[in-house]
Structures are given as C-alpha cells and as structure tokens.
Amino acid sequence: MVFQKLGGRAAATFAAPAAVSVASPSVAAAKVERVSTLGKRSYFAFVNKAEVARAEPSANAKRVAKLTLKTPEKTDDLVLVLDRTEVDGQEWLRVRLPVRPNNTTGWVPAEALSDLQPVDTWLRISTKTFKVTLIKNGKRVFSAPIGVGQSQWPTPKGQFYIRAKLKGYGGAGSVYGPLAYITSATSPTLTDWPGGGLVGVHGTNAPGLIPGRISHGCVRLKNADILRLEKLMPVGTPITIT
C-alpha cells in the first residue's frame, strides 16, 4: 500500500487581530491575541522542531505533550494555531494538539513552527443528524450524509483539525474509498489501533449503509461525496464534531 502525501508548505502572511488581556497563573501580564476564527479565517503551521508544548507560555510551565515532526502516516505533522502572545520578548503560540486526551491544547515557542498557513474552511460533523457540512468564508458550500461510529466505538466529539490527506488505499473498492483525511481526533475506545486509534474522514466500499452508526469511530462518506469534498477542503481545516 502506497500513500501519496498531498499539499505543501506555501508561506503565508499573518496579520494579527487586536490583543485582549487574559489572566494566567504563571504569566499574569501576558496579552493573548486570538489567531483563528472558525469558518472565516483560521491558521495552521507545520512542525519544524519537536518542541515541548506547555500549559502556559513559559519554558518553566507544566509539560503537556511534545510536538512530532511526522504523523503516524509519515506526512509532515502540523498543528492548528489558536492564540498568540509575547512573554519577555519571545513569541508563543497556543495550538491544538493531536494527542490524548482529545481537545488538548498547549503553548509552544513560535520558532518551533513554520510560517502560519491560512484556511477559510470549517468542517462540521453531526453524529446526531449524520451529516457533514463544510463552511467556507462563512458560507455553506458542501453537505452530505455520513456514517459515524457505533455506540460501542463512538466518534469522539469536540474540536479537531485535518492533519493529513492520503491516497493509495486501492481505489473506490477499498474499505476507505479513494481518499482519506486523517484528523487530530483519536478513538476514546480503540487505543490499540494503528496510530493509536486515529479518526479519519474517508470514502467507503459500502455506500448503502450511509447514513447511520456504522463505523469503528471514523466518519464515512460516499465516494462521490469525499471526492467533491477534496476539491473544497485543504489540510489544516478546523473540525467541530457534535
């Protein structure tokens, strides 16, 4: 099985929004700027250095996780950037991390990441209505029925992002269909699966089962729908699963 990594590291110009004050146990005077706004303009960054992510923007703060240069699928790893601040002349970024538990965030030095990459898309997944919707620059541009995790293997809920896009599963006849997006989410129950139970958004070889609770936690689309989505949704897109 050969996977083809898609996407590049095109540089982007980042204009920071207005700053707002926040309280912090260890950095009381820090001012935090919101970087990403769902459905309008969000930013992700590739990992350039396997730096430790911390609970506060300080090298002395509690360790949360460690960044990785590569995903389990051997693609360049990336993180969704949420906020930024400057402490003692050093820029820090709060990022969403692809680790357990789901929805974990942490602060990393900006120098550990690439230039910020903009996206204007937002993927919304409903495990109740079995529907996926893509918002682009504030407008709905895509919607389709989906299959989600069965009750014993639920699709995790929360805030995530598209971590990688893969091809090479054997075409439309594959259980994954012609394309798979890998998300930052992990299964709450299947911890021993490849990659630690990574949750994907992918095609299927059983379209007649959609919509419904049919998977081990991944989100399945009909193959025609996942190929439509590919034309609209780039890597780094934030995800909300409800």
From TrEMBL:
The keyword Cell wall biogenesis/degradation applies. The active site is at H202, C218. It comes from the Bacteria. It comes from Solirubrobacter deserti. The keyword Transferase applies. Residues 121-242 form the L,D-TPase catalytic domain. Keywords: Cell shape, Cell wall biogenesis/degradation, Peptidoglycan synthesis, Transferase. Pathway: Cell wall biogenesis; peptidoglycan biosynthesis. Transmembrane segments: none annotated. This is L,D-transpeptidase family protein.
